[in-house]
# Entry
Amino acid sequence: MTTEALPAPDGVEGWTAPGYEPVAQVFAGNFERYGETGAAFAAYRDGELVVDLWGGTADPATGRPWRADTLQLVFSGAKGLTAACVLLLVERGQLDLDTPAAHYWPEFAAAGKDRITVGEILSHQARLPGVQQPFSTQELLDPEHMASLLAAQAPSADPRAGFIYHALTWGWLTGELVRRVDGRTVGAFFAEEFAGPLGLDVWLGLPDEERGRASTTLAGPGVLVPQVGDDDDPLRVLTRNPLTTPDAPALWNSAAFRRARIPAVGAHVTARSMARFYACLARGGELDGVRVLKEATVGLGRRELRRGTSPLWGSPMAYGAGYELRTDLALFGPPQDTFGHAGFGGSRHGAWPGERVGFSYTMNLVRGDFPDRRPLDLLTALHGAVTVSPAR
# Structure
């Protein structure tokens, strides 16, 4: 905290730079308005941390408070990290978005998938939104095994599968591409190429010795759904998510799940570090003299590859090379050039390149609200502060 920093309001911890006090007021108000349990919000502007807030309870069972270094599972917030790994391999000439994935992963050509490109996988157009072969929880936590099941599977013939969110399979596909051309898992690749150089407290596969800092993730109303029923829509059956079953919270908080390097949904982070990561992307891949991606590579990641409407949810979708792009829902705040990735149940992580802002909202109460006002109110307040506060 700098000498100019202002303390957070009563009831929450942290600080803001002058001019960003409204963000702290909204963050504190979320606990009363929306029943927040534990949460953190951080933002960088032009490479400097301007908002760093946290509060509430990390583990209601023990009363352990949310601290400055509390780690939170962010589910699909992991996709933005994995996408950066793929983009770095593209930058190095080891992958190409327009090349069929089978060029790097020969087994993937089976069952008519020989023409599916790397770019189509990144933008949720691979027609593999679920795994047809039954699998156990132990197998779910083994990315290489799940990738092998997808390599043998035929793409869905349902026309709706041509552009549909690949909640879990996206990570097994992209993670296997990284492993095939580089030899490292996505978790190891990100740790060595991004987290280390940028000083990020971000983990794709949480070591056991760090587990004591992780919050307990809780399921709010409308989040958990049965995985059996009389639904006769084959695409809905295929896309059922085993991480939203009634007993899923026990899995989310288990040592095995935290340890597993699941590229699509397995990241544990602090909001401060996620905001720093996106601050780097907002500045074209460089922060504090450390360059992790070329500016053109970041531009490639946010270049639109597909836009449309979710065939199952009816909501707008837009994707670059792994990153969610702005739609009419403005899930990443008011600016027109936003990109990033949301996480299941509310977390939000992204960049505003025009304002050179990176931000992250993490929380341990997963909610089914859509849209979720908790991050949206914070991002509206942040945008207001950025608009009236000069860059420092």
Remarks:
- The CA atoms of residues 111 and 154 lie 5 Å apart.
